[in-house]
Design brief:
With about 300 residues, this protein is an all-alpha fold. The chain has one domain. The protein is about 75% helix and about 0% strand. It is globular. About 50% of the residues are buried.
């Protein structure tokens, strides 16, 4: 009974994380109005998140800062190979192709997670998972929109790169959680991502935009809110959820994110909901429900 309750909590945490990630468009567009580039927005987000995660870790468990030198490559993979790589790929893809196409390619992540889970964790593939995976991906395609414009080979590589990097967090995070607490994992992951981001974000230009802001304190507060809502809360929730939920299953559950993004787009940016988008939302919800129906297959 306890294991079932823990798994249920884990599922709720994964879905909660996806909901917070789905609100990212509000914050990214607002920071873009200040003149920050996509890479600079990524840097602001991960830097503040890293600071908050370190404070949380210090409060929760000071000993959590101790990690084995042999695990440094693991955290380099989480910070650079996953968090930084996927965000840079995703925002770069958006810059050279339509948003809908970039989103479709990003949400190939459940496929990569499923394949990597089978390879590294020997997770079993069954009919229920396959159906849920196909429903989730098809739903993401419909929600994001069908577009064949501005597709280039470079764009495809960047899009698939964002999906692989996004999925890699579930795989490496699962490994890291066997050795460290979620607070240690998130803190070191974002510290590494921060160091990497400052090497490519043109720091002097980014800081000059802070100085040029009319009310810099308002901008700083908004940046903190951005980090808390789109990074701290969702990544901590997702990492906690990974302790009891399979990586492949978590990846499919997280595809509820474009559903949330679509709803937010309707209310905040007056983006229309088409028949195809509505069908996509239903398919994503169906995938989530299928994964949580009690069955003999024991997903």
């Amino acid at each position: 009974m306890k294991d079932k309750n823990n798994k249920s909590i884990g599922i709720v945490l994964i879905i909660l994380a996806a909901c917070f990630w789905g609100s990212m468009g509000i914050f990214v567009r607002r920071l873009g109005d200040y003149g920050f580039s996509s890479i600079q927005i990524v840097s602001i987000r991960v830097t503040i998140a890293a600071l908050i995660f370190c404070i949380v870790l210090f409060i929760k468990d000071k000993k959590g800062f101790r990690i084995s030198p042999k695990d440094i490559p693991l955290f380099l993979g989480l910070g650079l190979g996953s968090i930084l790589f996927f965000t840079v790929c995703y925002f770069s893809a958006i810059a050279i192709m339509s948003l809908s196409t970039a989103a479709i390619l990003l949400y190939t992540s459940p496929i990569w997670i499923m394949l990597m889970s089978i390879l590294f964790f020997h997770e079993k593939m069954n009919g229920v998972k396959i159906v849920a995976l196909l429903l989730a991906f098809a739903g993401c395609v419909l929600v994001s929109g069908l577009s064949g414009n501005k597709i280039t080979f470079t764009g495809l590589l960047l899009g698939f790169g964002s999906g692989i990097g996004y999925g890699l967090y579930s795989i490496l995070g699962k490994i890291a959680l066997k050795r460290y607490s979620p607070f240690t994992v998130t803190a070191y992951t974002f510290v590494v991502a921060t160091i990497g981001s400052w090497m490519i974000c043109r720091p002097a230009d980014m800081l000059s935009k802070f100085k040029a802001a009319d009310r810099m304190y308002v901008l700083i507060l908004f940046c903190i809110l951005t980090a808390v809502v789109t990074a701290v809360i969702p990544f901590l929730s997702y990492t906690l959820g990974l302790r009891t939920v399979e990586a492949g299953r978590a990846g499919i559950l997280a595809t509820i994110e474009p559903l949330v993004a679509t709803v937010i787009g309707m209310f905040f940016f007056s983006e229309p909901l088409t028949v195809l988008s509505g069908a996509g939302i239903v398919m994503i919800l169906a995938a989530v429900i299928i994964l949580n129906i009690k069955s003999k297959s024991q997903i």
